[in-house]
Every structure is written in structure tokens, then in C-alpha cells.
Write a structure and sequence with these properties.
Aminopeptidase; 5-stranded mixed β-sheet; 7 helices; binds coenzyme A
Length: about 200
């Protein structure tokens, strides 16, 4: 693969930019909204309380931002072109973060959040499509494996619209803020499949 890092990506309505400390508090505030973190965060539940405390998180984000420009980091903040407002973030992280048995940077996972105030306008799909185009076409990764809670159609509809293949077997996942395990759909997209789909290069 080509390690191009989180290069700026422009779509019709959005700009995806390398993350900076400037918008981390805003993104953390979005992440702390229960409807956002419920089927997104998979850090161990023992960190629940720490996650809710900005003073503790700030240090974590400051350290994280030191690597935001590294060529092996693929994580963007999402801005509206019209207003410059930060409305979410998305990533194409190492597959290892989703499945411990994967030890190959060419096989990656994806994740996305959009501020609930801006959901339902197609921004999630627009951002995801742009990032996945970049990862397959420019970075030339081999495969994306991912999953979404069955009760979270807003997320798995993005995967299905982009042509991800739903796997027969579901999995059970421990989400950070839920006590019980949640059943998820698993999805796979290969480079060959993505290129053969010939999706429009911008928002549908
Ligand atoms: C998933 C998420 C990023 C989608 O963002 P968005 O900007 O609202 O996405 P879009 O507007 O592009 O909508 C995506 C699809 O989901 C559908 N959708 C949106 N909200 C929905 C809901 N509550 N129930 C059912 N479908 C929904 C949309 O209609 C669209 O499908 P369509 O094109 O077939 O109509 C956003 O809901 C979010 O941040 N959720 C919380 C975090 C999360 O769960 N992340 C993913 C973890 S796997």
C-alpha cells in the first residue's frame, strides 16, 4: 500500500482534513452524546468514567495529535465547506483494531461519527465514500473489514450503499457504554470488488 497519511479530501459539501487539537474538544463533546457513542466506542468498559472527563481526555488527545500527520495515520475531521464547522470525524484504521488476528496494514477497518444535529443529510455517506475512494484508489489498500450493530442501520446502510458484502455470520461485540453484548453485522470490501463496482466518484 501507499502510506499517504490523512491527505485533505474535498467533496461537494465537505472537507476532510488531518486532525488538529483545535477541534478535539468539539469532537469529544459529539462523542460523549449517548446516541453517538452507544454503537461506536469499543474501548473496555472500565474506561467509561475516564472517557467522560475532558481534563483526562485532553492529555490523551494532545499525545495523539503528535502523530496526526504521520504517513501511516488515516483519520480525518469532517468540516462543512459552507460554514467551516466541524461536524464529525472518520478513520480507516489498522484491521487489528477490529480483529486482533489481523496483522497486515493493507487490511483495514473503518469508523465514522457525525454530530446528530447534522445527521440524515447524506454527510456520513459522502465522507465515507470519499475516504474509501482515497484508501482503495490512491493508497491501494487490499481490503476493508468492518461491522455495525444490527440495530444501527444508519451505519450499515452506508456500508451497503457503498457495496460492502455482508457476511453470513454475525458477531457479538462489547460496546463501551453498554453492559450487555450487542449483535453486529460484519462486512468486507476487497479492492477488486470496489474497483468493479464503478461507483460514482462523488455523493450519490
Ligand atoms: C452512522 C452515521 C455516521 C451516519 O451519518 P449520517 O450523516 O446521518 O449518514 P447519512 O445521512 O449518509 O445516512 C446514511 C443512511 O442511513 C439512513 N439513516 C440515517 N439515520 C437513520 C436511522 N436513525 N434509522 C434508519 N436509517 C437511518 C439514511 O436514510 C441513509 O440511508 P438511505 O440513503 O438509504 O436513505 C451517524 O448516524 C452517526 O454518527 N451515528 C453514531 C455513531 C455510529 O454509530 N458510528 C458508526 C459505528 S459502526
Amino acid at each position: 500500500m501507499n502510506f499517504l497519511g490523512s491527505k485533505t479530501i474535498e467533496t461537494d459539501r465537505l472537507i476532510l482534513r488531518t486532525q488538529t487539537m483545535n477541534e478535539q474538544k468539539r469532537l469529544w463533546e459529539i462523542l460523549m452524546i449517548p446516541e453517538v457513542n452507544k454503537y461506536f466506542l469499543t474501548v473496555p468498559p472500565k474506561f467509561r468514567e475516564k472517557l467522560k472527563d475532558w481534563d483526562k481526555q485532553q492529555k490523551f488527545y494532545e499525545d495523539d495529535m503528535k502523530h496526526a500527520n504521520d504517513n501511516n495515520v488515516f483519520r480525518w475531521s469532517i468540516f462543512l465547506k459552507d460554514t467551516g464547522e466541524c461536524i464529525g470525524r472518520l478513520s480507516c484504521h489498522e484491521g487489528h483494531d477490529e480483529d486482533e488476528s489481523i496483522n497486515n496494514p493493507n487490511i483495514r477497518g473503518v469508523g465514522w461519527i457525525i454530530d446528530p444535529k447534522f445527521q440524515g443529510h447524506g454527510y456520513g455517506t459522502e465522507a465515507a465514500k470519499a475516504m474509501i475512494d482515497f484508501m482503495f484508489l490512491e493508497c491501494e489498500i487490499e481490503q476493508i473489514i468492518t461491522g455495525a450493530a444490527i440495530c444501527n442501520p444508519a451505519s450499515w446502510k452506508i456500508m451497503e450503499k457503498l457495496g460492502f458484502e455482508r457476511q453470513e455470520k454475525t458477531k457479538m461485540i462489547q460496546y463501551t457504554f453498554l453492559d450487555e453484548l450487542t449483535e453486529i453485522y460484519s462486512y468486507v470490501m476487497t479492492k477488486e470488488r470496489y474497483l468493479s463496482l464503478n461507483l460514482p466518484s462523488r455523493r450519490e
